[in-house]
Amino acid sequence: GSARRPHSSSTSADPGAPVIGGGGADPPPPFAGTVAASPSGTIEPMSEVLHALEQQSIYVLREAYARLKPLAMLWSLGKDSNTMIWLARKAFRGRVPFPVILLDTGNEFDEVYAFRDRYVREWGLDYINAECPGVEATDATLPPAARAAARKTLGLKRLIGRQKFAGVVLGIRRDEQPVRGKERWMSPRDADGTWHFRSQPTELWGQFQSVPPPGGHVRVHPLLAWTELDIWRYVQRESIPVCELYFARDGRRYRSLGEKDITHPVPSQASTVAEIIRELEGTRSEERAGRAMDHE
Question: Is the pLDDT of residue 195 over 70?
Fold first, then answer.
């Protein structure tokens, strides 16, 4: 089943964080972020690359919200989905106007659950905890780690069947895996969750294929053009909270977060966002090197 937490009007404990609207109050002003202060105190234009990515993502989110009802967002609690929530709050005047969902296998890291509990409150999220079916419900011919991941696929399929979501927002990026290089900003899925990519035209001039097939839904990917390095540079610039597991302890850190029994840390000395950025600028190792499923 799934448990849903109602919208909260809690505000962030960080003094500089934007206030979350609620309780009938006027919505807060849009986030700042189009300019950044230099160490000297002067105002400088923000990175043109990050600005272009941000505006593109906000455009996709707004188009999805206008076209797809009801809409929901998957929140894995990793750096990408936290960035996606941050962008949604910018797009919609400080709040996320649709539910956010954790596909919960019960096997996330303790630190991930603690992060969830804090930021559901602080960001005032309409949160759904969607419990995934047990591993016995998955294809027994799959390798062990793939079966664990398949629990989330089944959990999403069942949730969409119950809630009848027309659109689901995900935080995937083209640079993560070769198969994701074929993705679109909006990807219709049939009732079985299959994407018939050969029949989907190229998205030119913002012309998205946003009509769900009969019994199906549309997956929305606002971070598609971002890279891992883009995400971390944006996290640094915007001071976006991320789970503590991303930062090195005893010479190891998690570069990608998944279930605790199929995700492993990688060697690293990067204990701050700035150090992670410097590390990524000089590495050629794969982002998902710690994901057991990718090596089966």
Answer: yes
State whether residue 243 is helix, strand or coil: coil
> What token pair was written down for 119?
């930021």
Task: Name residue, tokens 């919505």.
Answer: 27
| Res 250 pLDDT > 80 | yes
pLDDT at 44 over 60: no
- pLDDT-derived band at 10 (thresholds 50, 70, 90) equals very low
Structure tokens at 103: 């596909």
Two tokens at 295? 């090596």
Name the token pair of 68: 């797809």
Q: Which of 263, 270, 268, 269 is nearest to 289 (CA)?
A: 263
- List the end-to-end C-alpha distance of the chain, in Å, as a whole number: 30
Pull the structure tokens for residue 26: 């006027």
The DSSP output letter for 106 is: S
Q: Where are the alpha helices (DSSP H) in 198-265?
A: 228-238
pTM above 0.90, yes or no: no
For 79, phi then psi, to 5°, come to -60, -35
Q: What is the pLDDT of residue 91?
A: 97
Query: Average of pLDDT values for 196-218?
Result: 84
| CA atoms within 13 Å, Cβ hemisphere of 84 | 28
Beta-bridge partner residues of 144: none
Q: What angle do CA 189, 191, 194 make, to 5 degrees?
A: 45
Q: 97 — alpha (psi -120 to 50), left (phi > 0) or beta? A: alpha
H-helix or E-strand spanning residue 96: none
Yes or no: say if 111 and 245 are a contact pair by the CB < 8 Å rule. Answer: yes
